[in-house]
Design goal:
GO molecular function, one term: phosphatidylcholine lysophospholipase activity
Number of domains: 1
CATH architecture: 3-Layer(aba) Sandwich
Protein name: Lysophospholipase L1-like esterase
CATH superfamily: SGNH hydrolase
Largest sheet: 6 strands, mixed
Organism: Saccharothrix saharensis
Structural class: alpha/beta
Number of strands: 6
Radius of gyration: 18 Å
InterPro entries: Ester_Hydrolysis_Enzymes (IPR051532), SGNH_hydro (IPR013830), SGNH_hydro_sf (IPR036514)
Order of helices and strands: HHEEHHEHEHHEHEHHH
């Protein structure tokens, strides 16, 4: 996702303000765009087998783990492949289930829920055992309607489930934690992302997936330790930030893989 798009969106959402207030919003947008900038490289990739087989010790047929979504799913912001959320989760899954895990990354930086269908097309052509989807931040930055965004996500979760894939979705993060965005822009971003996350959860669970509320569970940590939890661009998570996210995603992924954790 791109920081400058977020600033344009939240400024537009405050279009009713005039005079001095409008000038303040415009100046905040300009300053934040300068600070955030544009990522100078795509996310790292490290697909392959992790765990028992990855260490050269054998271990049988690998469990297949797919990652779909946007730049957060892809791991934009880390400096080493070992810090990628997909790699961390694949390694954790292998340890928990006692079998090697093959990581397959389909996530593309900048994706919105409209782009998920193309990723799911590739996944269901040869379905994995379990999939993680993280999506929503770019839906906010592109002002995609919350009901439409959530429904698009639900439709793709339904396709994955119909193909026999266990699905965990990390819902939209709280964009109000991004420090370069000053108030009142930050409050607009926070409110929009939280509403989207709630709508996503309803649609995901209705479609048979498991939703994890990343914003609710992580926002306080990201606000309190922003210097540690954000990468150099101050917009995407750092390795520490991703570690916090993976720590709450691993348990539901294990539960889904073991058929122990499903919506009621």
């Amino acid at each position: 996702m791109r920081g400058y798009r977020l600033l344009a969106v939240v400024a537009g959402a405050l279009g009713a303000v005039t005079g001095v207030a409008y000038g303040l919003v415009s100046e905040q947008s300009r300053r934040a765009r300068v600070v955030i900038g544009v990522p100078d490289a795509p996310p790292l990739r490290a697909d392959g087998v992790y765990g028992v087989a990855g260490s050269g010790e054998g271990g049988g047929t690998p469990v297949r783990f797919a990652v779909l979504g946007d730049s957060m799913a892809a791991g934009l912001g880390v400096d080493d492949v070992t810090e990628l959320p997909g790699v961390v989760l694949a390694t954790g899954l292998a340890d928990e289930v006692g079998a090697p895990v093959r990581l397959e990354t389909y996530a593309i930086s900048g994706s919105t829920s409209r782009d998920l269908a193309a990723q799911v097309d590739r996944v269901v052509a040869d379905p994995p055992d379990v999939a993680l989807v993280i999506i929503g931040a770019n839906d906010v930055t592109t002002r995609l309607s919350i009901p439409v965004s959530a429904a698009l996500l639900g439709a793709q979760v339904r396709r994955l489930r119909a193909a026999g894939v266990g699905v965990v979705v990390g819902t939209c993060p709280d964009l109000g934690t991004v420090r370069p965005i000053a108030e009142p822009l930050r409050s607009v971003a926070r409110g929009w992302s939280r509403r989207l996350a709630r709508a996503q959860r309803v649609e995901v669970e209705r479609a048979g997936g498991v939703a994890v509320a990343l914003g609710d569970l992580l926002a306080a940590e990201f606000r309190a330790r922003h210097a540690d939890y954000f990468s150099r661009d101050r917009f995407h998570p750092s390795a520490t930030g991703y570690e916090a996210a993976t720590s709450i995603l691993l348990a539901p992924l294990c539960g889904v893989l073991r058929h122990e954790w499903w919506p009621r």
